[in-house]
Amino acid sequence: MESLVDYEDSDSDCESSNTLGCSRQLKQNQDMTVSRPLGLKPTESHPENIHGTSRHGRIPSVRTDLGSALVKSHISTEGLPALPEGHIGWERQYTPSYMDKPLLNISSRVAIASPDSLEKTTSQQTSSGPSQIINQHKSSDTVKRPQHVSSGIRPYISKRQRLGPTSASGDMSSKQSVEEASTKQTRCVLRLSEVCERVKPYLLEKPGAAGIPRRLLRGLEGHEGPVNTIHWCPVAQLSHLLLSASMDKKVKVWDAVESGQCLGVYPCHAEAVRDACWTPCGRRFLSGSFDNKAAITDVETGQQLVKVDNQFKVMCVALQPCDEHVFLCGGYSPVVKAWDARVSKAVKLYSASIQQTLAILFLKGGREFITSTDSVSRDSAERTLIAWDYQTTARLSNQIFHERYTCPGLALHPTGDCFLAQTNGNYMAVFSSQRPYRMNKRRRYEGHKVEGYAVQCELSADGTVLATGSSSGSAHFYDYQSTRMVHTLCAHRQPCLRVAQHPVLPSTAATCDWGGEVKVWH
After folding, report:
1. Contact 247/512 with Cβ under 8 angstroms?
2. What are 324-342's pLDDT values in tens digits?
3. Where do the H-state alpha helices sit in 56-158?
4. Which of 11, 100, 152, 337 has CA atoms 20 to 30 A from the CA of 376?
5. How far apart are CA 402 and CA 436, in angstroms?
6. 266 vs 238, 263, 308, 454, 516, CA distance in Å?
7. In what order do the strands lie in the sheet with 241-246?
């Protein structure tokens, strides 16, 4: 089929010719085909003068009648109604751009107009008028389109009909689940704030001597990774709450004394949580993680009040006993950082020639603290324990422990002027908390195994019972004065990492292990 491409940039006098003249001229030149790349001007690869003459011959340019409109739009002319003869600009009159829908229902097929089709179209122009065209296309459009499409208005459908009975029931169930969740959260908040019935009788009495737990009270399951540490709440009225930090990136709070229910799960870190402890008020906790972050979280709301970036993996955290807004962080770095929670900035730096800090322990008064490191020389454990001045950041002593063992855990005696260190030599050593921090060589607690695990030790509230875990999974209890092992609990199958003795209830303790289990004994 022969094709015709219109030159839109032509200024020929043929633009004023009528439709019949154009069709005759197209009839005479139907054997000539002019092609030009889209977008090229006449002065480029196809030069032509103002009269529309190209190198192929004289081809008129038609743009004011039906032929030019069809050529420019590349649509078929078959089946289209004719327009009045000599009418100019019909497409702008009958199909303006601002109308919601065009009057001509034009097919989207791409076609090229031929001279025969142009003659057929122009011959029909004298037999029909604009009103007939509009009426015909209105009737055809109403047949093809639905009523709401032709009118431009969609029928209203109610929300109940759109959702249907299944969606409505689903909404009801979701509302019920939300209400149950809110009720459960309210109950958890009440349990966090109320005093446990088992603890009430011991609050008014004078604290008695610590006892030794003998049997299992309950198991607390829910962690999916090793539980690194556990702590009872230091507030006596809230001492039924147990805090646990695990390698599964979560910190949990349990009602460990009465119901054994998990009251709160706090996914406050992106990596394993290595250490955590309560704040003195018992409403918040401090946690450190392998994601380089240390955070202070509200127990009731779960909101992170403070979060700082240490730029190293955090192994241990400690609160300043004289200033509740300051806490220390140590880990895979030769620097220990002191942070002010009010401004979230590091206020002090304690630097030493070490690789990592394993534990931090503040001495009484908060003016000095001890750090345990992994620095071991060939003959002695130089810089294994370092004493620091908190205010001046000066090292007071690094010749405290002279044996070739690292110390993964430290514990302060509640009444005496000494502290204890858990060593990888499978024993616990006693040191003076006064300068020059000498070790008591006559007192040593042996019988358990550490074997490279981060096994920690702890003293009872009155300082008479010393408890520690073991890599064998047992929990061991020692008499502090005689250094004799009093009792051994076969607590876990995996290594037992910590034994936490209850601050109020006698003969009550909690244990955690490398397998993710937490158990309560009494």
Report:
1. no
2. 899 999 999 999 999 999 9
3. 66-73, 90-94, 115-123, 130-144, 147-151
4. 337
5. 13
6. 19, 10, 17, 23, 16
7. 227-232, 241-246, 251-255, 262-266
